[in-house]
Amino acid sequence: MTENKTTINIFFKLGQFIGIVSGAVAAILWMMSLWAPDTSFTFNIASTAVVLFMIILAIVIIVASMKAHATVIVVAFGISFFPIGLYVLGIPHWIQWVGLANIGYLLAGVIIWRFKPVDFKESFTSSDQE
Question: How far is CA 22 from CA 4, 58, 61, 123, 125, in A?
Fold first, then answer.
């Protein structure tokens, strides 16, 4: 029984780690695309707002991964991947790594959801009840 709890905890921590790393990679790459001197990107006010929103969403992913909120992670994946992440995944440029980081969001959310340790209160059953 201890092996099973240890395995669940390892996978749970792995899911948290994947979420934190994916969020950090996506945030750093979005910041690089916004502030690095790359001539392949031109930004107007709308695209700048979208990039800033994606940075904020990546930070939300990091915090949700630390707090193990799998639902928040999966919803944030849907918000970030389907309009933007899927598009940048098809661009033959370094920005496609943002799409791969977004896939890491989904992977982290599913792993955290599946392997989240269940803490049952021992007060529901007492030792003299059998």
Answer: 27, 8, 8, 38, 41
- pTM confidence score: 0.84
> For residue 36, which phi and psi values (nearest 5 degrees)?
-80, 145
For residue 127, the 8-state DSSP code is T
Identify which has the larger pLDDT, 1 or 40: 40
Is 116 in contact with 94 (CB distance < 8 Å)?
no
d(CA 106, CA 112): 10
CA distances from 4 to 9, 69, 78, 113, 118 (A): 9, 22, 31, 16, 12
**C-alpha dihedral, 77 to 82 to 85 to 89, nearest 10°:** 130
96 pLDDT tier (thresholds 50, 70, 90)? very high
Q: At what angle do helices 70-80 and 96-115 cross, to 10 degrees?
A: 160
Identity of the residue numbered 82: F
